[in-house]
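Hi! If you just cloned this repository, the fastest way to understand the data is to look at a raw example. We've pasted two of them here, unedited. The first protein comes first, obviously.
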Amino acid sequence: KVKAELTLSDGRVQKLGEENADFLEGHEAALHTKNGVLEYLPTSEDKSEKLLFNTLRIPKAGVYRVVLSDGTAVWLNALSELHYPVTFGKDSRKVYLKGEGYFEVAHDKKRPFSVVSVSCEVLALGTAFNIESYRTGKISTILVKGKVRVSESMNKKELSPGELAVAQGGKLVVTKANLGKVTWKDGYFYFDQENIEEVMEILSRWYDVDVRYSGSVPKAVIEGTIDRNTSLSEALNVLKDISGIKSEITGRTVIIK
């Protein structure tokens, strides 16, 4: 569902959905929401060196898109959080991500754009990329187009389109990416050689359910695509067709047999 919670710089909290709304953020910007998109429209030039920050939080079973003051568009997946300036400063553009986000960065040669996620920083120069940091200590960056530089501890790598960088334990490994992984922003789950625990972790965030295993965890490997607009029972039926795994829904709990 399209939903989010926006915390403004003065601590006010706004619940966001698909409905239209307009409000002001200090003297910095006018905020406009329409059809599940939050857009920042600067109302004045930089008047202060101090940046005002907003935080956009996406709950379980939610998704939202925000257009930042520079025109950069960010799609945020379920159980994710983006912390960012209402308007950027004169020299740089930096935002902070937890969870998963897809970025289409507005080109600005004078102000590089970077995303900090846990211990990893991704520097972009007019580009589109996906960052996922749900798993503790593991940050995955997929470059779709353009160019990014990924930094983890003392390691730095520049990615070419179609490459994946995984930062974990101070190491940075670059391999070929599966671009199907970023189709979540277009409304699909895409599974490529995932085990059942990884798949159910994704489904639990989207459908806001807990997962239990009856007996040992099945060792099936999942490949396939599921429409995110489908119901939980239908999604589990697709998994059964793909892998033979049986499940049962009890209240807000899914039991994998």
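Ok, and the second one:
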Amino acid sequence: MPDRVRVNVANPNELLKLPGVGPEQAERIVKFRAQYGPIGNESELSRVLGWRGLGESMWGRVDFSS
């Protein structure tokens, strides 16, 4: 199983390990955390990324712990 990425503490380069996340999406995550605090769940992460939902390739890869 691939390593999980802790979205609430990962730097932009680490966030790029998530499927479908490019530099622009990684920067959105970092900016959101700085302004609003930790991302709490899949739904919130989807909104931050501007996606309708997280794809199956993302399931099991995201860790929301701080």
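That's it. A detail worth noticing about the second one: The chain is about 40% helix and 5% strand.
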